[in-house]
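Researcher: First entry.
Model:
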Amino acid sequence: MQPMPKTANLIPMFAPLDGIVTQIDIVVGERVTPERHRIEIADVRAMWLRMAVRKEDAGRLALGQTVRYSSAAHGQSVPGQIDWISTGLDERTRTVQARASAINPSLHSSSKPGHTGPWLLRANEYGNAQVTVGSISRAVMVPASAIQRLDDQTLVFLARPDGKSFEPRKVHIGENRNGWTQIRRGVNPGDRVAAANSFVLKSELMKDSLEAP
């Protein structure tokens, strides 16, 4: 490469922000005017994660919830926070659009001020996002198979002291996780509930109510 000769025609251009040049729309000899954007600069230290959420799950989203994003391209998990949720459905995908902000991790171990990459996340890549919609520190959990519904009530069947029979107990339920259901009210720690074949007890309860005078 030959060094460029010094010329008085070179005019320095200063960007209003730090970032990476992502597009240059200019050719040698072209006249430059302020009305047209010639160079595009992106600050990729912070990225937006755009998510398509099933409408069945969208009601559980809230601003400020934590998001963990990962992509098969790098396999790392990147934290973010929801800062926008659409009020409508996408006409094409029939999903609810949501957005989270995330700090883009540097691929270098050094974190010197002004470091400009390379960065882990790339614009327009695809991946998966997990949203934490709630946390349960201490709770009574029962197998989901123990939950039965009768009319407008949610029931479980508690073992009586004799250990040979069960009685229905109305409960208020919460989160469902990996085959377990949270009991907010109605069951105490240590109570024994019928998990397997609880639907048989429900059938017996319905039969008794039909036969009652």
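Researcher: Second entry.
Model:
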Amino acid sequence: HPKIPAPYLRTSTARIALDFILEKGGAAYLPVSLVEPFIANGQLYKVSGVEDWYRPIYLSYRKASTSVEAIKQVEEIVKEIDPLTAYSLQQIGSASSDANH
């Protein structure tokens, strides 16, 4: 945002950004699951007029992996917590299945 000064902390770790903002103030794009409790108790607020931002999740593994069952469990968890990402996973899975037939 043009009216906000450049940050004096840059991090790719959401928890570090959250702790910094709670202590010093500021703004960041953070996962809803991380900030929900702080929004609920009034320590943080969602900035109005800002679009939600989604980061894709990729599951990449070998078909012959010995961990396929565990990977499928992770995929099911993603479907429960993030339907948009789950839909993307289905589309990618379908495309790779189609390419193999």
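Model: Note on the second entry: The chain is about 50% helix and 0% strand.
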